[in-house]
Amino acid sequence: xxxxxxxxxxxxxxxxxxxxxxxxxxxxxxxxxxxxxxxxxxxxxxxxxxxxxxxxxxxxxxxxxxxxxxxxxxxxxxxxxxxxxxxxxxxxxxxxxxxxxxxxxxxxxxxxxxxxxxxxxxxxxxxxxxxxxxxxxxxxxxxxxxxxxxxxxxxxxxxxxxxxxxxxxxxxxxxxxxxxxxxxxxxxxxxxxxxxxxxxxxxxxxxxxxxxxxxxxxxxxxxxxxxxxxxxxxxxxxxxxxxxxxxxxxxxxxxxxxxxxxxxxxxxxxxxxxxxxxxxxxxxxxxxxxxxxxxxxxxxxxxxxxxxxxxxxxxxxxxxxxxxxxxxxxxxxxxxxxxxxxxxx
Length: 345
What we know:
Order of helices and strands: EEEEEEEEEEHEHEEHEHEEHHE
Largest sheet: 9 strands, mixed
Low-confidence stretches: none
Structural class: alpha/beta
Family: Belongs to the QueA family.
Subcellular location: Cytoplasm
Helix content: 10-25%
CATH class of the largest domain: Alpha Beta
Distance between the termini: 30 Å
InterPro entries: QueA, QueA_dom1, QueA_dom2, QueA_sf
Radius of gyration: 20 Å
CATH topology of the largest domain: QueA-like
EC number: 2.4.99.17
Number of strands: 17
Mean pLDDT: 94
Protein name: S-adenosylmethionine:tRNA ribosyltransferase-isomerase
Number of domains: 2
Strand content: 25-35%
Shape: globular
């Protein structure tokens, strides 16, 4: 399977730089995963495609202000750090720029000394393990000093940190937002509940590995980075009930999808579970849990385009993306949404 099979041409001007004022007013492309037919709607119309008994699965992870700017101790050298994973004892795996200035033993000062860090190890792909030192509560210091880790294709400054957060974000831990959920408002979620649709919550702390480019020509040689996930029994019960009664399980986002498909047994049954997943979903994968997917428009040749192609077929997905370009949909994190579903099911 060649990575070029998942390429499409995207004009730069279609990459959304700012979130819309009203989250639910973004456009929605409804893609029939069986026929490839598309409809053009707005996200708030999603309720017209949901049915009583359906189970909508959302990822309640919360993005931390994971980008820090500091200086190398004793110099004026500027250092940028992106927190990736908390290890233990205030040690974090980080992405550091410029890496060559940060050998083991390097000390970095943030916020005039409110926070300091020392590089204690260099791990895979040149990531640094940094031991942080501070007084008080780390999360509060991070909130003061850190910035939201917007993807590199977003060049505008984010005015309101909460706009890179879902309205249901609950548990700190992500280096990137589960962006499909950014379209929901509290009012729309209440409307969904009032219809008799069950909403189940799972947690997957999104790492940057999800968005890293596939550098291998042969897709099957690509290695996914691990991400932590958790499902509580009460939420597993909601999903199992919907499946048992013949209703649809609809994942909000690729992160919810990866969580469900990682945690389920071979029959698609879920129990309370937590752990690390490196699941890589590409065409040929047989889904065990999800029936439909709400998602954004993803980068060409990315693992996310491969995941949606596994659900709807590569030809259908690429044709839909071509239509989205022609219709000037907004792409990526702050862009428009797609609902992949079997309209007849």
